[in-house]
Design a protein that fits this description.
Length: about 260
C-alpha cells in the first residue's frame, strides 16, 4: 500500500481575474500532520474548498488513494474519506450537540425513502449507533460535552463549540481531516488546550492525515510533521518547521522580514 493519501497536481482556482490557487502541487501521506500557512488571502481556504468540492477547480488533478475526486460532489468526497471544519463556525447553535455532530455522519447513511418507510429496524439501529459514536468521540475531547449530548450548542463555551465541530468532522471516520484555523478567536490557553486534544486524538488515529491551517507559529511548530507555505495561491515553501523559519522567501512573504 502506497503511503500517499492525497495527491494534487497543478491545482488552479480563479475567481474572475484573481488566481486564488496557482498550479498547486501537493502530496499528503497517511498519518502525517501538515501545517498549512500563508498570509491572509493566500489561498488556504480555497484549497480546502476545492478539495471538498465546495468550489470547482479550473485545472489540475485531485486523487485520494488513487481515486479521482476532481469535480466530485461534496457528499461523494465526504464518503471517500475527506472531512473538514470551517474557518467561520458552521454550527446550528439552537440544535443539540448530537444533531450537530450527527450531520457529519449523514453522507455515510442510507437515507432513501425505502429505508425510511420499510426498514425501520435498520434505521433505528443506525440512529443508536450514531448516538453511541457521537458520545464516544465527544468524550475523547471533554466528558462534559458527552454528558450533555442533547443540550443546545449555544450553552457551550467557544472552545467546546470548536471541539464539537471537530467531532462532526471525525464521526464519519475520515482518512483526511482539514482544519481551517480551529483556534481562531481563542485565548492562548484555550488554543494550547485544543492542540493538546488534537495531539491526543492524532495518537489514537495513527493513519489519519491532518492538514491544519493556522497563523500561530508556535502551534504549527508543535503539531506539524511538515509545513507548506502559500503566497498569492502559489506554494513558496514545503519542508520542516525549522526550514520554514529560515527560508528567505517565507520571511519576506509571510513574516514581513527583509521587505
Ligand atoms: N468565493 C469567492 N469569490 C471571489 N473571490 C474569492 C472567493 N473565495 C476566495 N476568494 C479570494 O481568493 C483569495 C484567496 O482566499 P482564501 O479565502 O483562500 O485565503 P486564505 O489564505 O484562506 O486567507 P485567510 O488567512 O484570510 O483565511 C482571496 O483574494 C479571496 O478574496
Ligand atoms: Mg482562510
Amino acid at each position: 500500500m502506497s503511503s500517499t493519501l492525497l495527491h494534487c497536481a497543478g491545482l488552479t482556482k480563479t475567481f474572475g481575474g484573481l488566481v486564488a490557487l496557482d498550479r498547486f502541487d501537493v502530496e499528503i501521506r497517511r498519518g502525517e500532520t501538515i501545517g498549512l500557512v500563508g498570509p491572509n488571502g493566500s489561498g488556504k481556504t480555497t484549497f480546502f474548498n476545492v478539495i471538498t468540492g465546495l468550489c470547482d477547480p479550473n485545472a489540475g488533478t485531485i486523487r485520494l488513494d488513487g481515486r479521482d475526486l476532481f469535480g466530485c460532489a461534496p457528499q461523494m468526497i465526504g464518503r471517500a474519506g475527506v472531512a473538514r471544519t470551517f474557518q467561520r463556525s458552521r454550527l446550528m447553535l439552537d440544535q443539540s450537540v448530537f444533531d450537530n455532530i450527527a450531520v457529519g455522519a449523514l453522507c455515510h447513511c442510507d437515507l432513501g425513502l425505502l429505508t425510511n418507510l420499510f426498514r425501520r429496524a435498520r434505521w433505528g439501529r443506525e440512529l443508536r449507533e450514531t448516538v453511541n459514536r457521537a458520545r464516544e468521540i465527544a468524550s475523547r475531547f471533554n466528558a462534559a460535552i458527552a454528558d450533555r449530548l442533547f443540550q443546545p450548542v449555544s450553552s457551550f463555551p467557544m472552545i467546546d463549540r470548536r471541539r464539537i465541530e471537530i467531532c462532526r468532522a471525525l464521526i464519519g471516520r475520515p482518512r483526511l481531516l482539514l482544519l481551517d484555523e480551529p483556534s481562531a478567536g481563542m485565548t492562548p490557553d484555550e488554543t494550547r488546550e485544543l492542540m493538546d486534544d488534537l495531539l491526543a486524538f492524532r495518537s489514537e488515529m495513527p493513519d489519519l492525515a491532518v492538514v491544519l491551517v493556522e497563523h500561530e507559529m508556535d502551534v504549527i511548530r508543535r503539531v506539524s510533521d511538515r509545513c507548506i507555505v502559500l503566497n498569492f495561491g502559489r506554494k513558496v515553501f514545503e519542508g520542516s518547521f525549522d526550514g520554514l523559519i529560515a527560508d528567505a522567501e517565507v520571511q519576506a512573504a509571510y513574516l514581513g522580514i527583509g521587505q
